[in-house]
UniProtKB/TrEMBL annotation:
One Gene Ontology term of the molecular function aspect: S-adenosylmethionine-dependent methyltransferase activity
UniProt entry tagged with the keyword Transferase: yes
PANTHER family membership: METHYLTRANSF_11 DOMAIN-CONTAINING PROTEIN (PTHR44942), METHYLTRANSFERASE TYPE 11 DOMAIN-CONTAINING PROTEIN (PTHR44942:SF4)
InterPro entries reported in the protein's UniProt record: Diverse_substrate_MTase, Methyltransf_11, SAM-dependent_MTases_sf
Keywords noted in UniProt: Methyltransferase, Transferase
Protein name in UniProt: Class I SAM-dependent methyltransferase
Record Pfam families: Methyltransf_11
Domain spans labelled Methyltransferase type: 45-136
Amino acid sequence: MTNNSTSRFSDRVNNYVKYRPGYPPEVIGHLEKECRLSAGSVVADVGSGTGIFTKLLLEKGYTVYAVEPNEPMRQAADGLLGNNPGYHSVNGTAEATGLTAKTIDLLVCAQAFHWFNTPGTKAEFKRILKPSGQVALIWNNRDVEADAFATAYELLLQQQSGDYERVNHQNLSETDFVNFYHDGKYSLVKFHNQQVFDFEELAGRAFSSSYVPAEETEAGQHFKASLRELFDSYNRHGKVIFRYQTEVYLGKV
């Protein structure tokens, strides 16, 4: 995990907490079934951010080690989840989690793996997982062709977000997953997810993304004005919808 990928969300934390999507409950059900999780299971959430997925795991009674190198994001998670006895906050990276070898039943990376897809990450995951342990790589992927608004929003990002194309997690290819998972074997399951926004919420969701210009900058204000035009053109009764496909990759490493 590079210094840039570690720090780039530091000024986005408030919007991240408020406006990033959660995950469908079916995701946890799928992991419970396929990984045979029980109340005593130990899960590592690597790149845990503000704890969006960590919270779902804790609600199921698992012991969760939330590994996050970005201090503002980790502190946000600590504030939300720190009173849960199953929650363990870890200042670590994907390549150096600091966790004990062969102690983890399930390792999850929710909206994070594209930041640390490296050989060092795979080696560290193999070190901390139990022999039967698996890795779940999870993303909420915006459906950019869901409707005219989704298509227009995607075009706006391409036009006004400097490194959107470079850091887009959909740059990962099938080859990346084949190389990551043991013997190239993994399952992929998809679930539907969505968020409904008024304009303030839409802007907050947009500015939670590290590739969108910071709101207080001139470029950020220009982006916000363009976003307002999109909203005014496409909203229905003062709302627009972000539709997602939540993808869950699962296998051994």
